[in-house]
Amino acid sequence: MATILITGGTGLIGRHAAKLLCAQGHTVRILSRRARPDVPLLRGLPVDYVQGDVRVPASLVPAFAGCDAAVLSHQFQNFPVENPRRNETFDAVDRAGTEHCVAAARQAGVRRLVYISGVALGNPNPPHPGIRAKRAAERAIFESGIPSVALRANVVYAEDDKYFSRLARAAQWAPFAPIPGAGAARCAPVHVDDVARAIARAIECPTVGGVVNVCGPDEVTWKELLLAVAQSSSAGRRKIPLHIPQPLLLLAGWIGERLPTPLLSRDAVIFATQFDQSCRDGAGCAEAFGFQPIGLREGLRMTFARRG
After folding, report:
1. What is the DSSP letter of 278?
2. For residues 90 and 107, what is the distance between their CA atoms, to the nearest angstrom?
3. CATH superfamily of this structure's domain 3-157+190-215+281-294
4. Is the peptide bond prior to 189 cis by the omega test (within 30 degrees of 0)?
5. How many other β-carbons are positioned within 10 Å of the β-carbon of residue 90?
6. 16-25: per-residue pLDDT in tens?
């Protein structure tokens, strides 16, 4: 069994990975900006918390010390809406934060790095700062000299996520399902448990390197996905798609960027409405780890149907 550090371990992917790795008998250490956060999913589990921040290199040295492997799943607060006033940006956290983690891991003698990346990186010549930052982060881990794998996760859904769970709750009463823009961008949604499973396999299989796509087997448009989530939580009752025009969203994002705590940004709108996240190219979980993530219909039924 290994001692594994998880950065971003209180976030959606990190906490589900921590739960699975604990169940498998690993010693799990979670990096957190708070000394001992209260995370419902992790209550009662034998996880150790170490206080630190990926933006502060000195705080990472004790966190990585004595670890065999590290799962880098950090994101800034309120992702993907940046808050430059608080240094919560893609560049500060995804790029520079990952570079700081790589340096600390190398100093500590960590033998395996698993970086949680995104399928949207496959878009050519991306104008989005999040994609540029994650590409730089991938380069940092691959050039670290430590055996590494980047898991490019697709759209992740879970009962305890921030977005789909809210949509599912609202859909029990509302006849509409809000669709950002045309909803035509494609994705292959994956359940968070399958992402956690891929993380565990990536640690168990040190010969697997490079990039692995972590995608569900069903490719759909965002419109199809949002309607499916809404209908799965309301006993299959059909919902009326309510398209929110992209220019209106961009205006709301422009206004949101000027608030002390931004609720929306233009970059977040672009990310949600324009980037293709299909998984047509590259190795997936079946090729790299020998398992196929659960299908969307079954996954949504297991995740949200009991709300109806």
Report:
1. -
2. 24
3. NAD(P)-binding Rossmann-like Domain (3.40.50.720)
4. no
5. 24
6. 999 999 999 9
